[in-house]
Design a protein that fits this description.
- With about 170 residues, the chain is of the alpha/beta class.
- It has one domain: Ribonuclease H-like superfamily/Ribonuclease H (Nucleotidyltransferase, domain 5), CATH 3.30.420.10.
- It has six helices and five strands.
- The protein has a five-stranded mixed sheet with strand order 3-2-1-4-5, with helices on both faces.
- A hairpin with a 5-residue loop joins β1 and β2.
- The longest helix has 17 residues.
- The chain starts with a helix and ends in a 5-residue tail after the last helix.
């Protein structure tokens, strides 16, 4: 491994949160996502109709399954109950993650995640007619958008590359 990749493994920071989509039918879909601050990729996500422990914990478990041996990232969240529940704490401890939480009442502390949700809602959610969409179909379309975000959406911050291209250029798994 080159020195840069070794340094990145030592400073890996993930950020997470849950956002809500209210479909015209009145039903809601909640997205729990985890992003890598290094390249802005979404490394894990889950969506469902309840913002419960299972949703947050399963997203974290998916992210942990992708960690390379020796990676012990910081996971940053807001102060939501999801991130203070015993299950979440256990998953962090079992995988060597360091928990970091925003200061109480200070939403800018989780700006990286909030910024992603703003982009997602601007590019995916707003301006589309979601009438007649069942939650399962919506979640499928949401997943497709996240997949394209990681593999097709180019970023000036990444030198005009996608998150997947940026990772590959450094020899990291996509």
């Amino acid at each position: 491994e080159n020195t840069l990749v070794k340094m990145v493994k030592n400073i890996l920071t993930l950020t997470t949160d849950i956002t809500e989509f209210r479909l015209p039918s009145g039903r809601k879909v909640y997205l729990s996502a985890i992003r890598d601050c290094f390249d802005s990729s979404v490394v894990a996500w889950r969506a469902g109709e309840r913002p419960d422990a299972a949703l947050a914990n399963s997203t974290l478990e998916d992210a942990c399954a992708r960690l390379a041996p020796g990676e012990r990232p910081v996971i940053h969240s807001d102060r939501g109950g999801h991130y203070r529940w015993p299950g979440w704490i256990s998953i962090c401890e079992d995988n060597g993650l360091t928990r970091s939480m925003s200061a109480k009442g200070c939403s800018p502390d989780n700006a990286a995640m909030e910024g992603f949700f703003g982009l997602l809602k601007r590019e995916f959610w707003h301006g589309r007619d979601w009438s007649g969409w069942a939650p399962a179909r919506f979640i499928e379309e949401l997943g497709a958008w996240i997949g394209r975000y990681n593999t097709e959406r180019r970023s000036d911050a990444l030198g005009g590359r996608t998150p997947a291209e940026f990772r590959a250029a450094l020899g990291r798994a996509a």
